[in-house]
Design goal:
heterodimer; A: 82 residues; mainly alpha; 4 helices; B: 585 residues; two-stranded antiparallel ribbon; 20 helices; 3% strand; elongated
Chain lengths: 82, 585
């Protein structure tokens, strides 16, 4: 088995993989809506596709806030400490 | 079997005997030691072994129970994998430091009292620093000294707490402490433990030192210090609310830094803080399921984090850099390394079928069961950051992305490194597919099934939509040739500031004071001396000399009366007699 060939093959099918990925995302949301919720206690269990929204908002904020703070004062040149 | 050989003994003896061997026999010996220790752990039966008396104190070397055994198992397995990964290293000292480090970590895990624990705790700090110094670069040597300084401080916190605890209770026995009974001594011990677990704000030593360690040393370092700390926290301080909060804060703090860091090993180091945060939070929540989760996650984490450090180490070893800004397109040259790294990355991210999924979720579920929804949500947020930085950012920018500007001299690492990565990856997969192999080792009997529909749905939504955001914001995440400040700034720049303060304020003040003393103090002293001299000459000497001269003059008068003639003496005596008589009457 040539690992490199498989990777190159998959890279050649990038558009197809992208489409499959988006379909998969849709399926995940659908599955979560269809999931039985009889033992849901808290709001995180009750809201449909809660973790989808959580991941979208969480990931976006995590990147923006971390990068923002870094650019604001945390980032320094590599020889900062000499 | 009532006798048991402590596995630490093999490592200590092995380290001392190692220089006696040469060539292939030495390589075999390096693998034999952890292999024999695995056997020793496999043969161990629960019980108390090796009670000793020292200076009127009772110590215990071997407390073998479920909690210590789960850590001992992963420590000896990791020691074998780490030794295999480091097999190509020629220096005996590196292997010896590794053996002493693993041995002392095992000693700490089996210790039944604070005194024994403290001794192994300190050996651990002093042996592990050599794994940093063996990188043999100026930065590593400096980072090593800072690491040592920090751990000596942590050891002092622990030691002072331990002595106060003895003063309070009259005992060194190391056992579970109830939060209600805790006061200064217990909190000092807790602070000492927390420093080794890299609990905020005592964490900066970790991302400062680990990325500067030798390629092979970092694989050992990432496994033992923090996890020994998790063990002692689980043993002594489960149910402490502060740990639940600080642990959760660590999970998010670590991933925020991982998002902005450029060096792969620094990204991974911040992820140790994040992952240990889950364990600390589990210990803090304190229920049977949460402590089980902490132990399970420590087990899984040691393996996948070692695998990630092995992958990053291989990249550094082969290309000479671990900076994402200088890497790219490595899948062409190191495809196997990439696959093993990705197994580590999906394991840490908690993908179904890999180890993180069955361990991390136990802690998150425990928080959910207890109604700690905020803790649960923040831990899931950290999960997003984990997949984002370790899974996507590093994989994309190192192995795919743009080809590096300057061609990298990259190919797969030596065979022993590949085997070590392959075996570790296999273990991550086995634990993920057969979680019962891990669950039977856990300290409490708890029914937990990670593969249920709602948990699968939650995990897949979090991971997949993180992937979507990464796809949309990949440019924002481009690595930058920068370093990021952390609280180590306070003692790194703080020390320099102090030096400046010394140079600009203390030293001039000292000079001024010297000058003042020279001009005012010294001249006053001279004046005083002169006065004393004059007083001595004129007053003291005058009195003494005057008396002497009077005695001399009187002597001269008396001398004249000494004629040697008896009639003169008789006449003089009569004269004195009548003079006295006249005076009296």
């Amino acid at each position: 088995m040539n690992v490199l060939k498989i990777i190159e093959y998959l890279r050649g099918k990038a558009t197809l993989l992208k489409m499959a990925f988006f379909l998969f995302l849709g399926a995940l949301v659908l599955l979560d809506i269809l999931l039985p919720r009889e033992d849901a206690h808290y709001f995180v269990d009750k809201i449909y596709a809660f973790w989808t929204f959580f991941a979208l908002a969480g990931c976006f904020l995590l990147i923006k806030i971390s990068k923002g703070i870094a650019h604001f004062f945390l980032s320094k040149d590599e020889d900062y400490y000499g | 079997m009532d006798r048991w050989i402590h596995p630490a003994l093999f490592f200590f003896l092995g380290a001392l005997l190692l220089p006696l061997f040469k060539g292939k026999v030495k390589k075999g010996f390096i693998l034999l030691i952890p292999a024999v220790s695995i056997l020793s752990v496999a043969l161990a039966r629960y019980g108390m072994y090796g009670t000793y008396h020292f200076l009127g104190v009772e110590g215990l070397f071997g407390r073998v129970d479920k909690l210590s055994m789960v850590f001992a198992w992963v420590f000896v397995i990791m020691a074998f994998l780490g030794a295999l990964y480091a097999l190509h290293r020629e220096e005996d000292g590196h292997h010896m430091a590794g053996f002493f480090y693993v041995g002392s970590a095992l000693g700490a895990v089996f210790a039944g009292d604070y005194l024994t624990l403290f001794i192994f705790w300190e050996i651990m700090a002093f042996s592990s620093v050599f794994l940093i110094w063996y990188r043999k670069e100026k930065k590593s040597i400096e980072a090593g000294f800072r690491y040592l300084l920090f751990h000596v401080f942590g050891g002092l916190l622990f030691f002072s707490g331990m002595m106060l605890y003895y003063y309070k209770t009259g005992s060194f026995v190391f056992d579970s402490i109830l939060p209600a009974n805790a006061s200064w001594p217990e909190y000092l011990i807790l602070a000492g433990f927390a420093l080794n677990a890299a609990v905020l704000p005592l964490h900066a030593w970790l991302p400062d030192a680990y990325p500067e360690a030798s390629v092979e040393g970092a694989v050992f370092l990432c496994a033992f210090t923090t996890k020994t700390a998790v063990y002692v926290l689980a043993r002594g301080f489960s149910g402490f609310e502060i740990l639940a909060i600080m642990g959760t804060a660590m999970t998010v703090f670590g991933v925020c830094y991982a998002v902005i860091e450029n060096d792969i090993r620094r990204v991974l180091a911040y992820h140790i803080i994040s992952q240990v945060g889950y364990m600390v939070a589990g210990v803090g929540i304190g229920t049977a399921m949460a402590v089980n989760g902490a132990a399970a996650h420590a087990f899984a984490h040691i393996l996948y984090k070692a695998l990630l450090f092995m992958g990053a180490g291989s990249v550094l070893y082969m290309t000479g850099t671990a900076k994402l800004s200088r890497l790219g397109g490595l899948y062409k040259y190191m495809p196997l390394t990439m696959i093993f790294y990705v197994v580590g990355a999906v394991s840490i991210s908690g993908f179904p079928l890999f180890s993180g999924f069955v361990s991390k979720s136990m802690i998150i579920s425990a928080a959910h069961h207890e109604g700690r929804i905020w803790l649960m949500s923040l831990m899931n947020l950290a999960g997003i950051g984990t997949f984002l930085s370790v899974g996507l950012k590093v994989t994309y920018f190192a192995f795919f992305g743009k080809e590096a500007a300057e061609p990298l001299p990259a190919k797969e690492p030596p065979l022993n490194m590949l085997w070590a990565m392959g075996l570790t990856a296999l273990l991550c997969f086995i634990i993920g597919v057969f979680p019962q192999t891990l669950y039977i080792l856990l300290p409490f009997p708890v029914e937990y099934h990670p593969y249920n529909l709602s948990h699968l749905s939650e995990t897949m939504q979090i991971l997949s939509f993180t992937g979507l955001v990464f796809y949309l914001l990949v440019k924002t995440l481009s690595p930058e040739v920068k370093i990021n400040l952390d609280v180590d700034w306070f003692y790194r720049k703080g020390a320099l500031l102090f030096m400046k303060f010394d140079e600009k304020v203390i030293a001039p003040f000292d000079t001024l004071w010297g000058e003042l003393y020279r001009t005012l103090g010294l001249s006053a002293l001279f004046k005083n001396a002169e006065l004393s001299y004059t007083f001595d000459r004129k007053a003291i000497d005058g009195v003494v000399d005057g008396t002497a001269y009077s005695v001399m003059d009187f002597g001269a008068v008396v001398k004249k009366l000494q004629t040697g003639r008896i009639q003169t003496y008789i006449g003089l005596s009569l004269f004195l007699f009548f003079a006295l008589l006249w005076l009296i009457l």
